[in-house]
Amino acid sequence: AQSVAQPEDQVNVAEGNPLTVKCTYSVSGNPYLFWYVQYPNRGLQFLLKYITGDNLVKGSYGFEAEFNKSQTSFHLKKPSALVSDSALYFCAVRDPMNSGYSTLTFGKGTMLLVSP
Amino acid sequence: EAGVAQSPRYKIIEKRQSVAFWCNPISGHATLYWYQQILGQGPKLLIQFQNNGVVDDSQLPKDRFSAERLKGVDSTLKIQPAKLEDSAVYLCASSLGGTLAEGQYFGPGTRLTVL
């Protein structure tokens, strides 16, 4: 069965500093990996995805993520955090070996707080 | 482009009552998803439609939950009767074709409180 772990409930970073939100996954085959962000009282917004190819993928709002197969990780990063980046971040995985309609499995989320 | 619309935004009911949620996906999106997000957890898929057919309802508690997408556009999710543990945010999402590599577009959600 596929699963996602986000080991940190909360990440605190000062504005202007680099940020990392951690994600590890478990699937039987090669994963499809996604990051979503959720602002208060709003739905989830798609940030970026890794399907195949370059291990470093770039997404919206200056975020990027690095796929590391040996460590089964897909950490979200940004070189310089903004206060407006404060939100709840979800990592999600799909196992393309399952079927044509493989379920998207989400982690429990990591709250990112960026202080001025 | 209009996003995924959901209503109502908030609903408070007593246990054993019934409730229904409505979702209008992005125009042209063939695939529609209903998720349940309990406080402190990530969204959990309840049901997935491809046009008006169900392709995955393995995690839907079918004794009390039902969903339909009769014309392949709008969808309703119903709970009857509600239990305390159904208190959650119910998210609707859509995607163009439902392929594994696609991102999903989420609505704002309906926050259900069961007393």
Write structural notes for this entry:
The complex is a heterodimer of chains A (116) and B (115). Chain A is mainly beta and 116 residues long. Chain A contains no helices and 12 strands. In chain A, the strands form 3 sheets. In chain A, strands 2, 5, 6, 10, 11 and 12 form a 6-stranded mixed sheet that branches. In chain A, strands 3-9-8-7 form a 4-stranded antiparallel sheet, with no helix packed on it. Chain A is globular. The termini of chain A are far apart. The model of chain B has no long low-confidence stretch (mean pLDDT 93). In chain B, the strands form 2 sheets. In chain B, strands 2, 4, 5, 6, 9, 10 and 11 form a 7-stranded mixed sheet that branches. In chain B, strands 1-3-8-7 form a 4-stranded antiparallel sheet, with no helix packed on it. Chain B is built from no helices and 11 strands. The chains are: A mainly beta (116), B mainly beta (115). The A-B interface holds A 4, 32, 34, 36, 41-46, 49, 51, 90, 92, 94, 96, 100-104, 106-109 and B 3-4, 40-45, 48, 50, 55-56, 58-59, 91, 93, 98, 100-101, 103-109.
Topology:
The complex is a heterodimer of chains A (116) and B (115).
Chain A: E1 3-5, E2 10-14, E3 19-21, E4 24-26, E5 32-38, E6 44-50, E7 56-58, E8 64-68, E9 73-78, E10 87-94, E11 105-106, E12 110-115
Parallel strand pairs in A: 2-12
Antiparallel strand pairs in A: 1-4, 3-9, 5-6, 5-10, 7-8, 8-9, 10-11, 10-12
Chain B: E1 5-7, E2 10-13, E3 19-24, E4 31-37, E5 44-50, E6 53-56, E7 65-68, E8 75-79, E9 88-95, E10 105-106, E11 110-114
Parallel strand pairs in B: 2-11
Antiparallel strand pairs in B: 1-3, 3-8, 4-5, 4-9, 5-6, 7-8, 9-10, 9-11
